Amino acid sequence: MSEPDRHLSLLQGQAREWWAQVRPHALDVDRDPTLPTRLLHLKGLGRLATLQIPPAYNPDPLVIAGRRFHLMTAAERVAYYEEAAWGDLATALAAPGAPMSGVLVDALGDREQKDWFYGRLLTEPTWTFFALTEPEHGSDAAAMATSLTRADRDGPWYLNGTKKYVGNAVRGRLGVVFARTGKGPLGVNAALVEAGQHGFEARPVPTLGLRGAQLGTLTMESVEIAPERVLGRHLSPTRRGMAGWLRTFNLLRPVVASMGVGLARAAHEYVQSQRRSLTRDEQHRLDALARRIEGVRRLTGRAAAAVDADITAGQLACMAKLRAARLAEDATVAALAFFGPGARLDHPFLEKLARDARGIEYMEGTENIQRMSVFKDLSRGGHG
Ligand SMILES: Cc1cc2nc3c(=O)[nH]c(=O)nc-3n(C[C@H](O)[C@H](O)[C@H](O)COP(=O)(O)OP(=O)(O)OC[C@H]3O[C@@H](n4cnc5c(N)ncnc54)[C@H](O)[C@@H]3O)c2cc1C
């Protein structure tokens, strides 16, 4: 085994141990989305709160066999989240910490903003949000209407608008909100926002799958934002808002792909464990599914390595994400077919996996959006 593979396999082994404890609670989390906050005593879930923080700001990384893990690279996150999704993806998405917002702060924050943001995460388990999607602007986030305006050059900014389907919107104590300070792509910016401020309201959105993730709507009416909370002030306009979210998505798309792989593996293993004898045709189908899972898993690993080497090299990540979303949906439905017409009633865990799998398609851009992104890159002469 190569040195990087050994590093990742140690992390994956640890993650598997942690998330095996969460799995027995998965159906309870589905029934009661407030449960994840009461599962923090389970190892792994609470630990995530102080991971995914850059080494310069985190004196307490995860140490396994003498190695330090910060979960800041796509490769480490992929290893971790495949196991977390195998355990329970909804609980993984409901964990404290800054899986998305922390990546953006790392890309766009100045020293003082990073000290403040990561410092808060280290003080106590803190949930964060990353608010980009709007009710009228989902896939076309660049057309966002949320505004960040100010009356005079040195005064505070004011945030107005609505964001939808935001992970940890209700649990989140702080996070990042994207808003428009002017027209066009360069007019998009992001600010650090604390929940509970005057004019800030968070409400849950009921969903069919991933209920524990508690997606929500954020409504902001004249929420005051101090000038020092606007990210990227020290950067040129081309490296601020949109550039920041594109970097975030490039890094996180392989991670979402690994979640799809984890769900598919969970469905495959469920069939293996619950069906004692299989016909030859069934065995053939199950083996074919295992091969497909392994194929997407390898593609995901390559996509993670590509963005770790160059954060702008996101095309493999798009491909892995779209293949994994399709895989998760197909694998969970195929697994149900092994249990006959009453499968959804008789096998609630599998039924939940099939509902959860539908969420992968929407995270970090739908299949159509990934296809368009790959097409644009190829038509510009990229190599995919
Ligand atoms: C589990 C989960 C977690 C999420 N977490 C967050 C979060 O933390 N923060 C956040 O801001 N958002 C989050 N989202 C929202 C997610 O980013 C959006 O759902 C996604 O961007 C799609 O937007 P939409 O739902 O409005 O769908 P739409 O954009 O309305 O898309 C609906 C359909 O139309 C297709 N479509 C749209 N535009 C085009 C086009 N130009 N060409 C071809 N087809 C098109 C899409 O592919 C899709 O099939 C989350 C969603 C889920 C499911």
Oligomer: single chain
Q: Percent of residues in helical segments? A: 40-55%
* Structure class: alpha+beta
Average predicted confidence as pLDDT: 94
Report the total helices. 11
Question: What series of H and E elements makes up the topology?
Answer: HHEEHHHEEEEEEEHHHHHH
Bulk shape? globular
CATH class of the largest domain: Mainly Alpha
Unreliable spans: none
CATH H-tier superfamily of the largest domain = Butyryl-CoA Dehydrogenase, subunit A, domain 3
Q: What bound compounds does this protein have?
A: flavin-adenine dinucleotide
Strand line-up of the largest beta sheet: 4-5-9-8
Overall strand count: 9
User: What share of residues are in beta strands?
Assistant: 5-15%
* Architecture per CATH nomenclature, i.e. the level-2 architecture of the largest domain: Up-down Bundle
Note the main sheet: 4 strands, antiparallel
Number of domains: 3
Tell me the span between the first and last alpha carbons. 28 Å
Q: How many whole angstroms does the radius of gyration measure?
A: 21 Å
Family: Belongs to the acyl-CoA dehydrogenase family.
Cofactor: FAD
Domain Acyl-CoA dehydrogenase/oxidase C-terminal: 240-376
Domain Acyl-CoA oxidase/dehydrogenase middle: 130-223
Would you give an account of this structure?
The protein is α+β, with helices and mostly antiparallel strands. The chain folds into three domains: 3-95, no CATH class; 121-236, Beta Barrel (Butyryl-CoA Dehydrogenase, subunit A, domain 2); 241-379, Butyryl-CoA Dehydrogenase, subunit A, domain 3. The chain is 48% helix and 14% strand. The chain has eleven helices and nine strands. The strands form three sheets. The chain has a four-stranded antiparallel beta sheet with strand order 4-5-9-8, with no helix packed on it. A hairpin with a 7-residue loop joins strand 4 (147-149) and strand 5. Helix 7 packs antiparallel against helix 8 (315-337) and helix 8 (315-337) packs antiparallel against helix 10. It is globular and about 75 Å long. The mean pLDDT is 94. It binds flavin-adenine dinucleotide. Residues 100, 130-133, 138-139, 163, 165-167, 210, 213, 215, 359, 362-363, 366, 368-369 line the site of flavin-adenine dinucleotide.
